[in-house]
Structure formats: C-alpha cells, structure tokens
Amino acid sequence: MKHVVIIGGGFAGLNCARQLASHSDVRITLIDKNNFQQFQPLLYQVATAMLAPSNAAFSLRNILQRHSNVDVKMGEVVSIDLETRTAETAEGQRYQGDYLVLAAGSQANFFGTPGADKHTYPLYSLHDAESLRSRILAVLESADRDPSLIAKGALNFVIVGAGPTGAEMAGTLGDMTHRMLKDVYKDLDLSKAQIFLVDLGHSVLSTFSQKSQVYAARMLEQRGVQVRLGTAAKEVTSGHVLLSDGTRIPTRTVIWAGGLKASSLASNLGVPPGHGGRIDVQPDLGVKGFPGVYALGDFANIAGRDGKPLPQLASVAEQSGKRCAKNIAAAIAGEPGEPFHYFDKGIMAMIGRNAAVAEVGEHRHEIHGPIAFAAWLGVHATLLTTARAKIETFVEWGWDYFGKVHGDPVLDRTSQVNINWNDDEEEGQDRI
Ligand SMILES: Cc1cc2nc3c(=O)[nH]c(=O)nc-3n(C[C@H](O)[C@H](O)[C@H](O)COP(=O)(O)OP(=O)(O)OC[C@H]3O[C@@H](n4cnc5c(N)ncnc54)[C@H](O)[C@@H]3O)c2cc1C
Questions:
Q1: Whose CA is nearest to atom 39 of ligand 1?
Q2: Checking DSSP bridges between strand 279-280 and strand 300-301, what pairing results, if any?
Q3: CA dihedral sign of residues 262, 267, 270, 272
Q4: What are the backbone dihedrals phi and psi of residue 255, each rounded to the nearest 5 degrees, phi first?
Q5: Which of 59, 92, 235, 340 has the most C-beta neighbours closer than 10 Å?
Q6: 146-154: long-range contacts, CB 8 A cutoff, minimum separation 24
C-alpha cells in the first residue's frame, strides 16, 4: 500500500483525505495540531455569540471514522524534509510518506504593525473566535458594572481590515450591540458603543464590484459602523489604537482582519516562499523539484486562468484537495496528473441581518439585500461538514431571525476577563 501523509485537516487536507480514502491501495495519515476541522466562514458568528463553537468545529475522527485506511494524528508539525517526504511533530513523532500533502492553511499577517501581534484579536481559529467572544462580553460586563469605563474605551471596537472578514465582523457587531443585546444588558447604554472599520485601501470589500462596495458601506453605516478608509492602524497598545491620520482611539478590543500569510510551516521548508509566504505550485499542485510533494489551499499559490494566484477561499481549498487526491491516485497508477482548474462559483459576504452581497458565478451576477442574505445562509449551511451541523446551524439562525432568540452570551474564557483599565500609559489624551 502507498502511504500518503497529509498535513492539515482543513478544507484542503480533509477533502484530499476523503477523496483518496476510496482507494483501497492507499493508506492515509492526516496530521493536524487540532483534532477538529474549523469552519472559518462562521467564526465571526461564534465571536459575536450568534453560534456556539460546536457549530463551527467538527471532530476529524468522527468525519473520517468510516474510512479504515485513514488514520488521524493530532500533532503540530514543526519540520519537514521535502526530499524524503517526512514530517516531524513537536512531540518528536516522524511520519514518512510515498506522497506528502502540505495543507497547513494560513495565519494572520500583522505587516509589522507595532503591538498588533500582542494586543489584537485575529480571527482565524476557533480559539481566536472564543477568545474574542469572551473579550467582547468582558468589556460589556465591565461597562455594565461601571459605566465610567465607557470613557476609557470599553464600548469602542476597532476592526482593522475591510475585506469580507472585517466587514462581516463589523456589521454583526453593529447588529449585536444595537439590536441583539439591547434587552439582555438592560442597564447598559449600548447606544454609546462605537465600531470603527479601518482600512488602508479606499473601499470596503475591495474584491467585489463597485456597486457591492457602495451597498456594503451603506449597510455598515446603517449599523452604526464608522468606516475609516485610506487609514492604517499605526500602533496598537493594550489600551488604544493609533491611526495613521493621528486619531487615537481608546479601546480594549481590536480585531485584526488585516491580512493573511501562509502558516509558519511554509517559512522553513527550504523552498523560497512566494507571494504571501505561500508555496508556489505547478499546475498539477506539485511542488517543483520535489516529486510526490503537493501544496494546497491557503498554503499554496495556485495560478488561476489569468496566471494570478487564486484567492484564499474555502472553495479553492476544497477543489484543490480533490484534484490533488486524483493526481496522487493517477501517479500511483503510473498515469500523469491533470492541471487544477478552479470552478468559480462566485463570492459573497454578509453584512448583517437581511444585508449581504453575492456575486454569483464567473460572470459575477450581482445580488444584494435579503435575497443575498438568504443565499449566504443557504450556501454556508450546505458547506458545513456534517449533517448534524447543517441542521443545528439552521435551527440557530431560525431562532435568531424569527424567534428573536439570540445565541447565549456566555463568557467562558477567564483569561479575557481581567482587564487592567489603568494600564494604558497615555491615558487622558484620548481624542476621537
Ligand atoms: C474569518 C474567516 C472567514 C472566512 N470566510 C470565508 C467564506 O465566507 N467563504 C470562503 O470561501 N472562504 C472563507 N474564508 C477562507 C477559508 O476559510 C480558507 O480559504 C480555507 O479555510 C482554507 O482551507 P485550508 O484547508 O487551506 O486551510 P485551513 O482550513 O486553515 O486548514 C489548515 C489546517 O492546518 C492545520 N495546521 C496548521 N499548521 C499546522 C501544523 N504546523 N501542524 C499541523 N497542523 C497544522 C490547522 O490546524 C488547520 O486545521 C474565511 C477565512 C477566515 C479566516
């Protein structure tokens, strides 16, 4: 039996493993630092307490249990020898394959912004989403207990990056503070909440059409979001954000949606990383110079039809995982692999209740508003990995929409609760 080692059980690695599992002459070892797949598109809903963490994370063992030729190993891969196709974990285990698949995804890119790595909340993992949810709830609880903290920025939320993640987060925070939690925090004046969406670029949702951008900006403003374009976050401390136009915003909650780069594993592979620190791949997803080694999804620069790298999207990761599995099966059978062709179904982003943008298919047929909102819910529920998650998530959304019963604002991470409200050195100079 040929042995395939897959690093990363996200959209790319998991789809590769599932597709390969039907080949009885293949044995697969899937290694991930978590024992679950995290569903990033719904993380902002976990962070805003709309969904429970269990709606956005799925046990890899459960998903793969019916495939007797797939073994899941939980471990963080810390080094890789591409020549011998061997991965070594932090715990010292080594896994050598006839084929090696690199699908370790992305991590936040702080672009060297001082303080950003220490004082912001990125949104890439389930852990990130749960920490952020606890921080949002912790500042609300603090301001509810002591309204004088509002002047210290307790109800100021700053989101850096106006792409889909930032826009979705900002819009939902607007819905959360101005609608969902109004009756829950009876004593707290949530009209004082301020949400800032900051981006160095000159548009919200820059990869969408201009019409979608204008619509998204309008929907955000309706939700009380203050959009600051052409503006960068220059510095982040424990108590404030300094913007490039000189504005200093006191805040304890800065959300980093400002960019991604490949997971740290890409930087010590011994091949020069390409754009975004990702690994450049050949049309069949193979890594040049290393037969039997493939890179997929967010970890790779995969050229689209125009020669430019495809975007970091779940659909790209999923489809590249399936193509990689087919190419490995072909290689085992002594046949050539085929180039990866991305089937572009379009892009969508949700701004909040009844407000979304969708650009469907390669020709980007545009839909805005409640229809796009319904389409977003339908598409994302369908994408969810397990049948149980699809049903549960639909029920949650139904409760929220029709029953006006929102997710539980449970503050379960004590690490985010203890905020030292006096630890920002330049306090007193606040101006927004
Ligand atoms: C907040 C957010 C919202 C998004 N929304 C959308 C959306 O609406 N639609 C859409 O199409 N795309 C969306 N995306 C993008 C999409 O989630 C990614 O493109 C997709 O997850 C990439 O899949 P992947 O398998 O390449 O990486 P991932 O899904 O990130 O999987 C990588 C896996 O590798 C594991 N791993 C990493 N390093 C190691 C290591 N050293 N050792 C072992 N395991 C490791 C990780 O634990 C993870 O399980 C969103 C992304 C984010 C962050």
A1: 104
A2: parallel
A3: positive
A4: -105, 125
A5: 340
A6: 147/188, 147/189, 149/421, 150/189, 150/192, 151/250, 151/430, 152/239, 152/250, 152/421, 152/424, 152/427, 153/239, 153/240, 153/249, 153/250, 153/251, 153/252, 153/430, 154/252, 154/421
Closest CA to 258 of 137, 167, 136: 167
- Distance (Å, whole) CA 80 – CA 97: 11
Low-confidence ranges of the chain (pLDDT < 50): 427-432
Contact between residue 89 and residue 72 where contact means Cβ atoms under 8 Å apart: no
First to last CA, the chain: 64
pTM: 0.93
Q: Name the strand (E) or helix (H) holding 392.
A: helix 387-398
DSSP state at residue 172? H
Ligand 1, atom nearest to 299 Cα:
26
Tokens of 317: 């990761």
**Residues 174-219: pLDDT tens digits?**
999 988 888 889 999 999 999 999 999 999 999 999 999 999 999 9
b or e along 360-395 (b: 16 or more beta carbons within 10 Å of the residue's beta carbon)? Answer: beeeeeebbeeebbebbbebbbebbbeeebbebbee
**Ligand 1 centroid from CA 216, angstroms:** 24
Ranges of beta strands (E only) in 144-200 are 156-160, 194-199
Atom 31 of ligand 1, residue of closest alpha carbon: 10
| Nearest atom (ligand 1) to Cα of 44 | 1
Q: Residue type for 271, please?
A: V
In tens, the pLDDT along 314-346 reads 999 999 999 999 999 999 999 999 999 999 989
